[in-house]
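dumping these here so i dont lose them again. two proteins, back to back, each one seq then structure tokens. dont judge the mess
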Amino acid sequence: MSITLDLPPKIEGLLRQRAESTGQDISQMAIAVLTLGLSLDDNDFFEALKGIQRGLDDFERGQFSSLEDFIAEQNQKYGLSLEA
């Protein structure tokens, strides 16, 4: 089955970036993202969307952490010993 979607440029860019970074075809990545989203119950789905939007908004405002800072925070929070 074939469906054509008009994605906002921001979403298309994120989808392309994720596909490229994982070495997958953009169509395969879109299917994976849709499958994940549709597998969640309604409450989890909408909470995930809110969290994603908050993250995008923070990123646009320049409010984000480096990978090293994130790993250090998770190590401290959960008693892990991950490395970047």
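---- next one ----
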Amino acid sequence: MENHYRIGTDPEMFLFDKKGKFVAACGLFPGTKQEPYKVEGGAIQVDGLALEFNINPADSCEEFTRYIARVLEQIDDMLVPLGLTREFIPYVDIDPSYFASLPDEAKILGCDPDFSGMTGLRKEPPEIGNLPFRTAAGHLHIGWGEHLDPDDPLHFEDCRYVAEHISVHTGNLWYLTAACWQRLKYYGGERAFRPKTYGVEVRSLDNLWVANKQLQVRLYDRVIHEMRLIDKGVPEDVSEKKFKAIQKIA
């Protein structure tokens, strides 16, 4: 790995009307997973029933927080005329009758596989497409190279170790609510990750940190700190016992 890291994120959020009722993002915003809608600092896209954004890869904490703030400013400008607000929460129950009225294509969940950071094995996606709830996350993208092969066993193991280590050592940065644990029943558990051509996507994190700049800074600083330790070979082996202890502190 290289000593310089670029950090990105692609958080999901849920939308609500003035009465606090959940409103699906489908049909209201431009951008798809395949063709995100470019905005200053990143892009936005509809992800099923949620609204998702991503930021440009950040070379510093200042860039990381600035990109997040700038993209959210543009999203807020789009929300105002619709009379909607956004919330970064990891789980939402949806009124069954409203859910039934939504188009079937918007209920289709992503099919790209996650992998367990604990075992390296593929995680099968849960079959919840037709159930009236959804989860949302705040994935982190950690880049340390270019044109890396996600199928290369050595790169895959690097990704697995980084995902496991980062998941453990960011687990005490904010309080994990009941909704956080509810999400982990379906997504992000076992320190989930995806190998990428530039590094790794850490998929275990929820989205609570996105709403708070102080948490954004703490998360960025912790990730960079831990990546530098990994480079130096400092971290001890990650254990289930240690992970559970950190979660109790959170």
